[in-house]
Amino acid sequence: MANAPTPSNNTLPPDAERIALLRDRAEFVRLETLRLIQIAKVGHYSSVFSCAEIFATLYYDAMRLRRGEPQWPDRDRFLMGKGHAAVGLYPLLVDWGFFSKDVLDGYTRLGNPLGDHPDMRKVPGVDFSSGSIGHALSGGLGMVLGGRAANRRFDVYVLLGDGEMQEGQVWEAALSAAHHKAGNLIAIVDRNGYQLDGQVDDIIGIEPLADKWAAFGWQVHEVDGHDVVALATLLRQLKAEADRTRPVCIIAKTSKGKGVGYMETEPGWHLGYLAPSDEALAAEEIKRGGKTQ
Amino acid sequence: MNGPIDTNSWQYRQINARAPGLSYLANALIELVEDGYPVVAGTADLQYSNGLVRFAQRFPERFTQFGISEQNMVSAAAGMASTGAMPFVATFASFLALLCCEQIRTDVAYSALPVRLIGHHAGISLGFYGTSHHATEDLAIMRSIADLTVVAPADGPQLAAAVRASVNHAQPIYFRIGRGQEPLVYDDGVDFQFGKAIVHGEGSDLTIIACGSMVHPSREAYRALRAAGKSVGLIDMHTIKPLDTKAVLSAAAHSRFVLTIEEHNILGGLGGAVAEILAEAGSPARLIRHGIRDEYSLIAPPTHLYKHYRLDAAGIEATVREALG
Q1: Which residue among A135, A143, A148 places its CB closest to the CB of B82?
Q2: Nearest CA-CA partner of A135 in B267, B145, B77
Q3: What is the CATH number of the domain that holds B37?
Q4: pLDDT above 90: residue B9
Q5: Contact B137/B265 with Cβ under 8 angstroms?
Q6: B105 and B204 housed in the same domain
Q7: How many domains does the structure of chain B reveal?
Q8: B177-224 residue pLDDT tens
Q9: How do residues B274-292 score in pLDDT, each as one tens digit?
Q10: Which terminus of chain A, N or C, has fewer Cβ atoms within 10 Å?
Q11: Are B240 and B274 found together in one domain?
């Protein structure tokens, strides 16, 4: 993918060309994730696969970015509460010209800036370091407040895991973001249903999740997190609400391991490693299914 | 959206009446904004306790009331700093250093974001509020976090000077301060350099190395001992990290004893930092660490506690006399 377009900033649904691009980029995320985890020999495949369409829609439709300018002060920000999906983000940052593919290809090797969790100090294009679940929404709120103090307007997107809803700090941030009218703060919950020890609702249940966010004063949307048309249309509508005062929570219904059948049904794939022959089969399956959404 | 400020409340009036030292923080920040620095400030339901209410009155658009959500505040401060703002966030040292330790490590220090963390009412200065509100571990915890500068100013003027100096300091900073009732050691406009200790005097018998709230009583003891003919020195080690190792080694080279004084556990804080330097240098000077001896403080008003733990001038003087035999 040589030329990532700038977002269109309109409220119309994406056209056929854009839809094809978003699907292609989601497939790219999955294939690159397979490739990079081969280098590390262990990684969070399924955590990336559940949010591949979210990554693609943010970076190729919703976010205002400038190619090769990761520090552009008016850029939209992206933070990952589920930092363990960073392996899927890094290829997109290369695609945007924020750092070179040579660096990407040294993923996790001694001295390379790219680890399992994103480090803003080392990786151009990473807006906030993460790895300890639960901090990112607060960090995103701080960016909104910082932008406000400096009279800059940008949107701040925070991708949260659904297991992350169990962290108390998320709700501290939820309460204060609504209070401080952080309308340009957009949380996206990757509701894939799983965390390390099993199904989220078996570990510590979080439902009714939409009601919780609404009760905290947020505008809530529920969407199929693998449907790039629905995602892009919603994010375009939100972009157009420039004077919104309520922060937004998008609950993206997703499937952990989406794109590789056995990962979708086996939660143990939260963290794993594919033998090279299995990797090839997984890649084939992704290519077969990736364009059908 | 920070809520109304009640200027008739006792909390507001006590800022000047009972805790004049508190006004230094807000005033220093107000001056920085007036000078064009992108300072923003926040607190977690303690705007009267730390005096930042004055900043909130002056620059409401630059102040964020986070409510009782300290961890949220620290992570948000990191976010603010990432956009180019210069955030100062304040709460009790016990909550800041212990409750928010991981946010400070991961979001602030590891990310190299120039957040200024103000831990006030440090040590046992909250007296009978009890152990939950005491911070006798914060220096040890903060000192072990890479790329975090740790400062314990002695009084309001030195705090103001350190705040002013921080605009040229790239690293995040943990400021450990008291409750605003500390007697003044310094005059307004005192010089401050991070990592550069202030040597009040040298002595061949013993050198006191003190920080923060302990500088004033240490200076009282130092003056009394010198008046009594003892050759005693005094160093204000306001920066715990990076420690002024030259000043420590110089004191150890010309004094038989080095005595550290801190309102903190004797493990891991100022005494621990000095011990590391002296041990690695093979110094022959004998080190005595004075402070809270790895225990939880009793309940009492602060001045009673300082007397009990011999952290007042008389207690420090007695500690020196015992050392010298």
Answers
A1: A143
A2: B77
A3: 3.40.50.970
A4: no
A5: yes
A6: no
A7: 2
A8: 999 999 999 999 999 999 999 999 999 999 999 999 999 999 999 999
A9: 999 999 999 999 999 999 9
A10: N
A11: yes
User: Both B97 and B217 in a single domain?
Assistant: no
Query: Does one domain contain both B27 and B136?
Result: yes
What is the domain class of A54-256 according to CATH?
alpha beta
**If contacts are CB pairs under 8 Å, which of residues 78-137 in chain B contact chain A?**
78-85, 87, 102-103, 106-107, 110-112
Give CA–CA dist B189/B182, Å, rounded: 17
Query: Cα–Cα–Cα angle for A92, A190, A145, nearest 5°?
Result: 75
Among A135, A141, A144, select the one facing B106 at the smallest CB separation: A135
For the stretch A73-92, what's the b/e string if a residue is b when 16 or more beta carbons lie within 10 angstroms of its beta carbon? eebbbbbbbbbbbbbbbbbb
Q: Kindly determine whether residue A138 and residue B72, on different chains, have CB atoms separated by under 8 Å.
A: yes
Check B72 against A179: CB less than 8 A apart.
no
Q: Which residues of A touch B38 (CB under 8 A)?
A: 149-150
Helix (H) or strand (E) holding B286: strand B286-292
Token look-up 């020999």 returns A41
- A282 and A260 Cβ atoms separated by less than 8 Å: yes
Most A-contacting residue of B65, B80, B91, B113 (CB-CB within 10 A), to test interface: B80
Distances (CA, A) of B198 to A167, A256, B193, B243: 44, 59, 9, 12
pLDDT in tens, B139-176: 999 999 999 999 999 999 999 999 999 999 999 999 99
Asked if B61 is an interface residue toward chain A (Cβ–Cβ < 8 A), one would say yes
Q: For residue B103, which residues of chain A lie inside 8 Å, CB to CB?
A: 135, 138
Distance from CA of A130 to the nearest CA of B (A): 8
Backbone phi, psi, residue A260, to 5°: -125, 110
Phi-psi sector, B294: left (phi>0), alpha (psi -120 to 50), beta: left
Q: Could you tell me which chain B residue has the CA closest to the CA of A180?
A: B1
Q: Do A169 and B102 touch (CB under 8 A)?
A: no
Q: Which residues of A touch B85 (CB under 8 A)?
A: 145-146, 149-150
pLDDT at B157: 97
Q: A154: distance to nearest CA of chain B, Å?
A: 11
Structure-block tokens of residue A200:
């989220």
Q: Please count the other Cβ atoms lying within 10 Å of the Cβ belonging to residue A152.
A: 14
Could you tell me if B20 lies within 8 Å of chain A, comparing CB atoms? no
Q: Which residues of chain A have pLDDT under 70?
A: 1-10, 290-293
> A126 vs chain B: nearest CA distance in angstroms?
11
pLDDT of amino acid A262: 87
Cβ distance B78 to B103 under 8 Å?
yes
Print the domain residue range for B317: 198-324
- Domain range summary for chain A, segments of one domain joined by +: 54-256
Q: Identify from A176, A180, A184 which residue to disrupt to test chain B contact, counting B C-beta atoms within 10 A and taking the largest count.
A: A176
Condensed to tens digits (0 to 9), the pLDDT of residues B300-320 reads 999 999 999 999 999 999 999
Which residues of chain B have a CB within 8 Å of the CB of A173?
69, 72, 75-76
Q: Which residue of B has its CA nearest to A73?
A: B83
Q: What is the pLDDT of residue A10?
A: 66
